[in-house]
Amino acid sequence: MKDLTITTMHKNHIPEVIEIERVSFSTPWSELSFINEIYNPNSTTYVALSDTTVVGYICLKQIKDEGHILNLAVHPKFRRQGIAKTLVSKALETFRANKCNFIYLEVRVSNIQARKLYEDFGFKPVGIRKNYYILPLEDAVIMLLQI
Ligand SMILES: CC(C)(COP(=O)(O)OP(=O)(O)OC[C@H]1O[C@@H](n2cnc3c(N)ncnc32)[C@H](O)[C@@H]1OP(=O)(O)O)[C@@H](O)C(=O)NCCC(=O)NCCS
Question: What pTM was computed for the model?
Answer without folding.
Answer: 0.97
